[in-house]
Design goal:
13 helices; 38% helix; globular; 413 residues; 4-stranded antiparallel β-sheet
């Protein structure tokens, strides 16, 4: 019997996964640095559990509820957990009927369920650019084609309406908005909401509104300017504001209360009554095939969301502090520009395009031991941009930022 060679094995795999795996230069350089003595300042850190934040004592105690020994599978999730999500959103000023909430094990899974719900293989989904690269992977893993639409920056970010319209084809089934966007931090303006509503209505598209960063808003003052007080999410959410459009709002423990390891997310279904009823019945069918959310985390959801509010406040304070420090440093070096943002926990800095973003990022790694993301990772339309997480411990953040700005301006030693 013939043994399968490497080529035959590759042929057995789906075209939806990469045929070859090869780390890029940045990944290889970073791996070598981390294998050597000496600290690396990671300004891409997105994990709130690794940045020195205080979590309330006993926050995980509710996971030990002995009711978790009983398996009671519910496609939409346990009623108590869905009610806890509705209460959590109500505290943010977003009114939700618990019967319209469905639970999933993370927002990535929620996306996949929604793609299964509204698309057939080969269909298309509109996704924002700049945007988080995971969206491309998720659409392709479900056998779909992502079609990018542009966000443009003129002092604030907005959707390019003409570009959005041009991307719609007969195979387009859904439009994704990330509100606020990752990494630009831009919320949909009233004009953008009206544009999205009109496009979805005219073309019969479902709207998927990723609002995982919704509660982190109002912290993004202009470079060097005052930092506004936190703004409540009420009025920022698109849920309940898209008349006539079947809308799916996404959120989860990962960002809402800084607990990414517990893998609980939610889908809020909104829109015309009949469309919502049909969507929920179909979503029950899809979810019943997986039943992926563990009972202990569902039983603990109320306590986690309530106690986690303190974590969210700490995250918001950290983000505002680091954003303000970044603004002051950028203002002192006018060759750089801190782009305005409305929320989220990332910042975008435009730096002089004296060399490629890849060269700058590699120099920062090799000479300054600082990790940043290049703009091209998020499909910025031109160079040169760097994307920074606002989560790191403030002293390390400021030290890293000083090195980034010095290297980008050519002033590094």
């Amino acid at each position: 019997m013939r043994r399968a060679g490497a080529g035959m094995l590759v042929g057995m795999l789906s075209a939806r996964v990469p045929a070859r795996w090869r780390p890029n230069r940045m990944s290889r350089t970073l791996a070598r640095l981390r294998a050597r003595p000496g600290a690396v300042i990671d300004l891409t850190e997105s994990n709130p559990t690794r940045v020195g934040l205080d979590y309330p004592p006993g926050i995980l105690d509710a996971l030990a509820d002995e009711s978790g020994l009983v398996y009671d599978p519910q496609p939409r999730g346990l009623a108590g957990a869905r009610e806890a999500v509705a209460r959590h959103l109500d505290r943010q000023g977003v009114r939700v009927d618990p019967s319209r909430v469905a639970l999933a094990a993370g927002t990535s899974e929620a996306y996949s369920r929604l793609f299964t719900l509204v698309c057939d293989p080969g269909d298309e989904v509109l996704v924002p650019r700049p945007g988080y690269p995971l969206l491309d992977h998720l659409t392709r893993l479900d056998g779909l084609t992502p079609r990018p639409y542009s966000l443009v920056y003129h002092g604030d970010w907005e959707i390019d309406g003409d570009a959005l319209e041009r991307q719609v084809t007969p195979r387009t089934r859904a439009l994704v908005v990330v509100n606020p966007n990752n990494p630009t931090g831009s919320f949909l303006s009233p004009a953008d909401r009206a544009l999205v509503r009109d496009v979805c209505r005219r073309h019969g598209l479902a709207l998927i509104a990723d609002e995982v960063f919704l509660r982190y808003g109002g912290h993004a003052g202009a470079a060097g300017g005052p930092t506004p007080a936190p703004a409540p999410p009420a009025g920022r959410s698109v849920v309940g504001r898209m008349d006539g459009v079947l809308t799916f709002g996404l959120g989860g423990l990962s960002k809402a209360v800084g607990l990414p390891q517990l893998k609980l997310a939610w889908i809020v279904v909104d829109g015309p009554r009949r469309g919502v009823a049909r969507a929920l019945r179909a979503l029950d069918f899809v979810s019943d095939a997986y039943l992926s959310v563990a009972s202990p985390v569902q039983l603990a959801a109320g306590r986690l969301l309530e106690d986690g509010d303190a974590v969210a406040r700490s995250i918001a304070a950290r983000v505002r502090r680091n954003r303000a420090a970044l603004g002051r440093r950028v203002a002192a070096q006018p060759v750089h520009t801190l782009l305005r943002a409305g929320g989220g926990w990332y910042a975008v800095v435009q730096v002089p395009a004296t060399r490629s973003e890849e060269s700058l990022v590699l120099e920062l790694l090799q000479h300054d031991r600082v990790v940043v993301h290049p703009g091209y990772l998020y499909d910025f339309p031109h160079e040169a941009f760097v994307v920074l997480s606002l989560l790191p411990e403030p002293r390390r953040f400021e030290s890293g930022v000083a090195r980034v700005l010095a290297r980008a301006s050519g002033a590094a030693a």
